[in-house]
Amino acid sequence: MSDNVKLIEVGPRDGLQNETTVLSIAQKVQFIDLLSKTGLKTIEAGSFVSPKWVPQMATSHEVFQSIVRTAGVTYSALTPNMKGLEQAITASVDEVAIFTAASETFCQKNINCSIEQSIERFIPLMALAKAHNLKVRGYVSCVMGCPYEGAISHKQVADTVKQLVNIGCYEISLGDTIGVGTAHNVKALIKGLTNEIDVSQLAVHFHDTYGQALANIYASLETGIRTVDASAAGLGGCPYAKGASGNVATEDVVYMLNGLGLNSGVDLNQLIDAGRYICQQLNRQNGSKVAIAHPTK
Asked: Where is each Pyruvate carboxyltransferase domain found (predicted)?
């Protein structure tokens, strides 16, 4: 197995969209520009969704046009529908992402359709992305559990993942949306999936609601996973568990990878600086234990 681990920085999108403070374009751009200097190779810089529902992402187009793009860094965006994809194309994004869920109830409540219908809606989007030479990443929410249905079967996760692969997603990020997963179950899920799907097509996206994210990432690495989503300073909350932390902090993941002798290519000190900057702008406590423990300059 490779010693290289690819980190997908989701703070500017998945992190900020769950923060109550709506930042200015300049603040978002500065955050992304700081992240671009850390060695991260992929930064999810925004989302093209309705500003009515996600006001935090209302200025994504302007953000993409204002950031200083670093050579070798992919700047991606979430595009849940055709309109979003069209906006993303005009903003010159490098890559896009779509999302569905492994839970029927969550899918209905989140995007008002069944899992099957969500996949069908993505087919014309995939065609347009291909026409513009844009790679498409897929997210599957609730792979470990659902706030409405409870435990989700591994078969349901596998069925959903395979459908996204079949329509053309190059990689599928397995999302533990409510952070209920534990290492044993994570290993079992991934081992089952890799009987049918190459491990190189899978990524993991753990929320730290119950403090299990790092343990789950470690378990995933042991199964061969080499792509991990994380959010600088642990940005974002879990909307289904009041007061709970959301995304695992990128700083904490990098520290763990360094300790394991695995290479992310990320400069931890510069990453900590980026996380501290955005926490100052949001007037919130840093969600990274590493950043809190790390001595200030």
From this structure: 5-272
Domains and CATH numbers, the chain: 6-293 (3.20.20.70)
Q: What are the phi and psi torsion angles at 77 (to 5°)?
A: -145, 150
CB 76 within 8 A of CB 95: yes
As a whole number of angstroms, the distance between CA 107 and CA 90 comes to 28
Q: Taking the complete model, does pTM exceed 0.85, yes or no?
A: yes
Coil vs helix vs strand at 70: coil
Nearest to 226 by CA among 208, 249, 199: 199
Give yes or no: 238 in active site. yes
Q: Do residues 161 and 197 lie in contact, with contact meaning Cβ atoms separated by under 8 Å?
A: yes
Q: How many CA atoms lie within 13 A of 244 on its CB side?
A: 19
Residue with tokens 């996204």: 164
What is the enclosing helix (H) or strand (E) of 230? strand 227-230
Catalytic residue (one of 107, 146, 169, 238): 238
- Give the chain's radius of gyration (CA, Å): 18
- CA 250/CA 177 separation, integer angstroms: 17
Amino acid in position 244: A
Q: Which residues of 236-268 are buried (b: 16+ CB within 10 A; e: fewer)?
A: bbbebbeebbbbbbbbbbbbbbeeeebebebeb
Three-state secondary structure call for residue 91:
coil
What confidence tens digit (pLDDT) does each residue in 220-231 have?
999 999 999 999
189 and 143 in contact (C-beta within 8 Å)?
A: yes
Tokens linked to 120: 């069908």
Instruction: Classify residue 137 by burial, with Cβ atoms within 10 Å: 0-12, 13-18, 19+.
Output: buried
pLDDT tens string 160-208: 999 999 999 999 999 999 999 999 999 999 999 999 999 999 999 999 9
| Angstrom distance (rounded) from CA 199 to CA 212 | 22
